[in-house]
Amino acid sequence: MKGKIVSIHSFRGGTGKSNVTANLAAQVAMTGKRVGVVDTDIQSPGIHVLFGLDENKMGKTMNDFLHGKATIREIGFSVGDHPGEGEGRAKLVGSNLFLFPSSIKGGEISQILREGIDFNLLNEGLQTTITEFDLDYLFIDTHPGLNEETLLSIATSDVLIIILRPDNQDLQGTSVTVDIARSLDVPNLFLLVNKALPKYDFSVIKKDIEAQFEATVTGVLPLSFDMAENASKDLFSLRYPDHEWSKSLRGVVDFVLAAK
Amino acid sequence: MSGDILKQLRETDFFKELSDDALQAVAAEGTVRRYAEGESVMRKGDAADSFFVILDGNLKIVTQDAKGDEIIINKVQPGETVGEMSLIDQRPRSAGAVALEEVEALELSKDVFLELLTERTDVTLGILKGYSNRLRFSTTYIEKVIDWSQKTAEGDYSFLENTQPMLNRAGSDDDKAAQLLSAFYSMVRKVKAREEGLKQELERLTFEIDQERRKREFEEITGTEFYAQLKAQAKALRERRAQG
Fold it and tell me: How large is the ipTM?
């Protein structure tokens, strides 16, 4: 089947999930693949900022689609045509990378939360997105925790990447997510450690966490002040390709491309 | 007195390349000297008019520090030669030699030595051959040390596994190069051990998962009707996808 759904999840907030999702999607697009990014973090959307999409210029959103008020075609925003400002993003010109943003309007958010989302509707939406845009990969930036929307995303994923920091609270939450992903038969389950303090031996962190979950750790990314300083101004791994963080992130791309 | 001066001469680095005939010529021209413990064999700054092949007993090679106190810079054992350098480069003694115990040495005067060099081509060639060997050895060792230095700088310690530097024999000059190699080898071994120690000292994170809580939270999520329905829908979806 063409078009894989790759969900990026973390149990707690602050793991750098949106940043990783945006950078990973951009890196996969740089390999020549057709890539989409869906922001289903409907409660606190934000990935559009990383792609330089101005909130005021945002047209139709995923919320409109979920309410039958817009087609997927109308929502897709071509990052390759409009990479926005930033040295890093400029490298995306001509790439096939599309963003499907969520609404940031309070009223629309609460409406979705009140009504809930239907699995089949969401799934149809994602499949339509893949077909209409002829995508190789559709990345889903999910909301932290294990609420119903997130469970839906996990259930529909071909690849699930769980981002965690190397601490016990993140490990505890991740353990439940790992069990859920296995219960929902997600074919490719990957872990990605972010914000590891450079003073630790990353190979030991990788080994220890893999032993805890019997799952592949696709990378251990360092906690970086450079990254924090860049904030959401640009896509870090494109702007600073030789940085340790960027190099480790590119290692994750291979796992995504190799996933069956 | 040692019964076999020829044998001892043959074991010195300086004369080891000489033929028996040439060795005999050297031995015949030398004078056996004996020194009591503490006696000076030669003094720093003296004119170099002879050199010595040590036949028995140990000596110390000494110089003085700025205050005039003695500094021992080397120890010399039987089979080694003392003072041959200044005989060739015609400069005053660069250090003194003092017997550490009763010492027996074969002294060859400068005149006798130079005469030998003039008259016996085989002696000259033998001595040159010895020098050449020592240079060759030193060069090989220096190249090795350069190679190891570069590897060490890059953090590549694999040569430690593949090399066993030879143990020092007597403290003769070409062995100084071997000593350098050996000292370098053990230095790198210590550097490596220290580096590994530091790595281990790095704080290691300990990960612990509360398995009961994990199980409880999993059951809370999976125990709902929503989840049961989702699981069934997901299963159906995966089957549809598998069929293509």
Answer: 0.88
